């Protein structure tokens, strides 16, 4: 376990040795804690209850918290030395942190966040950028950068952060760990510095699904319930088109794992752009009020705009007075966003709130109680340290189009690592309806090992791009055969299955489906 100090330092030594050559190229000194921690401390759990009572559920686990959570006796730094200088030590510990300590876990420190927890990049010039253990030459992602790094480097078993527009999901994707953004409002935000009150959600990082579920159930305070399997897993095809790596690298892994656990019949495909256009009418009203330009702007891009405007508006409403009085030195990109003139009328704020309400209803109706939506977590692999790429319109638009789905709807989302592509971590995200947190955690625990196996297989596969394309064509033809079979058009189904076999002759499903159609035709 990460709590065993001897093993920790051995792992740390190996990790440092493994990236020694990389540091020469980077000309950057790797700190002993990878720059993850801003302050070491220790909050110990209470004694174990006497038998026959069960031990505390989190016994033996240790964790860290992002520097937005209050801990009694310490100043909550919010990623900026000026904030630290102008605020008093907290008089109470955040209830979320207390619940974990009382549940048996040990808190060992506070971790670095982006300046004022505002960015999704993970770079902080005041405290230095935490080193991404999965890709040292790349950014770790933010805002909860240090918390993700602490888990990725095996310093802790799990860690807490805050997710506004990706503060958990992006660093989880970039550092190759599991990240969980729970449903909005199900975990108390008391004792946490807000970024955007209508978007902020306490989230957590873990290295494995068992720890994630174990901690998640304590945080969510959920009663026991029977585990349910998903009855539909929807791949958002248009979201996968946003990827800057081959989409098959992710979609094929999910498809193979789904077939193994739940059967091919649960796999469905969805175009979210079209779905949200029809189910979230306030997006059109928002467009007419605030957006000038391309009349063909997609609903996902509009969602991204709504999310960013809401974040900026609520952040300025909460912290504008402090910024104006203290005039903190901020990163130029963050300063530009925060200080940008943003005149929002009461009507426009109401439109944004309507978008939130309609989005939650739309996603809940799409997924119901037994559905999982599958999207890429991020469109880009983690950019290089100091890269200008993160400021490009394309990077911002693609990133926030994906991240805003859960942020605006308030639905729960888990980011899952899927190995590497071109030496960069790859991930996928599962989304369940608002309030479907336990169902989502159960599903993740069921499929996680299989996802890792299939990710490894796909990564090592030597299939040419043309062969991959043929496999997808075969799948498309097979789906036509399935539809013909349902319509009892046996001869037509046989024709489609035969065509699929010609495209991919090593898939047993195509042969068995054709055989079934022949049997029906014979009858």
From TrEMBL:
<feature type="repeat" description="TPR">
    <location>
        <begin position="474"/>
        <end position="507"/>
    </location>
</feature>
<dbReference type="InterPro" id="IPR019734">
    <property type="entry name" value="TPR_rpt"/>
</dbReference>
<keyword id="KW-0802">TPR repeat</keyword>
<feature type="transmembrane region" description="Helical">
    <location>
        <begin position="6"/>
        <end position="23"/>
    </location>
</feature>
<dbReference type="InterPro" id="IPR011990">
    <property type="entry name" value="TPR-like_helical_dom_sf"/>
</dbReference>
<keyword id="KW-1133">Transmembrane helix</keyword>
<dbReference type="Pfam" id="PF01425">
    <property type="entry name" value="Amidase"/>
</dbReference>
<feature type="domain" description="Amidase">
    <location>
        <begin position="55"/>
        <end position="212"/>
    </location>
</feature>
<dbReference type="InterPro" id="IPR036928">
    <property type="entry name" value="AS_sf"/>
</dbReference>
<keyword id="KW-0472">Membrane</keyword>
<protein>
    <recommendedName>
        <fullName>Amidase domain-containing protein</fullName>
    </recommendedName>
</protein>
<keyword id="KW-0812">Transmembrane</keyword>
<dbReference type="InterPro" id="IPR023631">
    <property type="entry name" value="Amidase_dom"/>
</dbReference>
């Amino acid at each position: 376990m990460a709590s065993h100090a001897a093993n920790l330092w051995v792992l740390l030594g190996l990790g440092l040795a493994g990236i020694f050559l990389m540091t020469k190229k980077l000309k950057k000194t790797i700190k002993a804690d990878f720059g993850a921690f801003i302050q070491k401390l220790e909050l110990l759990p209470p004694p174990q209850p006497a038998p026959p009572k069960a031990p505390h559920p989190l016994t033996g686990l240790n964790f860290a918290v992002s520097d937005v959570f209050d801990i009694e006796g310490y100043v909550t730094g919010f990623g900026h030395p000026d904030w630290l200088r102008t605020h008093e030590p907290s008089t109470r510990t955040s209830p979320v942190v207390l619940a974990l300590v009382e549940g048996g876990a040990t808190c060992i420190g506070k971790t670095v966040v982006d300046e004022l927890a505002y960015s999704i990049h993970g770079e902080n010039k005041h405290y230095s950028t935490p080193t991404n253990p999965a890709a040292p030459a790349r950014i770790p992602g933010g805002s909860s950068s240090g918390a993700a790094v602490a888990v990725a480097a095996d310093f802790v078993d799990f860690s807490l952060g805050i997710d506004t527009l990706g503060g958990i999901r992006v660093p989880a994707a970039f550092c190759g760990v599991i990240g969980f953004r729970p449903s909005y409002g199900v975990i108390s935000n008391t004792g946490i510095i807000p970024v955007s009150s209508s978007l902020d959600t306490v989230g957590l990082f873990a290295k494995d699904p068992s720890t994630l579920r174990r901690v998640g159930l304590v945080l969510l305070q959920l009663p026991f319930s029977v585990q349910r399997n998903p009855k539909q897993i929807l791949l958002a095809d248009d979201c996968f088109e946003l990827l800057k790596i081959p989409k098959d690298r992710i979609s094929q892994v999910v498809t193979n794992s789904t077939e193994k656990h739940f059967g091919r019949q649960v796999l469905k495909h969805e175009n979210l752009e079209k779905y949200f256009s029809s189910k979230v009418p306030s997006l059109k009203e928002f467009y007419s009020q605030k957006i000038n330009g391309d009349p063909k702007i997609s609903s996902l891009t509009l969602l991204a705009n709504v999310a960013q405007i809401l974040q900026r508006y609520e952040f300025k409403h909460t912290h504008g007075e402090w910024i104006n009085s203290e005039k903190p030195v901020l990163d130029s990109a963050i300063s530009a966003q925060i200080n940008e003139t943003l005149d929002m009328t009461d009507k426009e704020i109401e439109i944004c709130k309507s978008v939130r309400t309609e989005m939650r209803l739309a996603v809940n109706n799409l997924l119901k109680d037994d559905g999982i939506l599958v999207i890429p977590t991020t469109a880009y692999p983690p950019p290089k340290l100091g890269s200008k790429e993160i400021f490009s319109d394309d990077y911002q638009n693609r990133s926030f189009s994906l991240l805003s789905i859960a942020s605006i709807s308030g639905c729960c989302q888990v980011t899952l690592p899927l190995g590497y592509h071109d030496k960069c971590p790859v991930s996928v995200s599962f989304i369940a309806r608002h309030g479907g947190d336990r169902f989502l955690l159960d599903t993740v625990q069921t499929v996680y090992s299989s996802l890792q196996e299939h990710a490894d297989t796909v990564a090592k596969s030597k299939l040419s791009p043309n062969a991959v394309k043929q496999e997808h064509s075969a799948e498309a033809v097979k789906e036509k055969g399935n539809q013909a079979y349902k319509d009892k058009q046996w001869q037509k189904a046989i024709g489609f299955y035969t065509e699929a076999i010609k495209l991919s002759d090593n898939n047993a499903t195509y042969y068995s489906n054709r055989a079934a159609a022949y049997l029906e035709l014979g009858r």
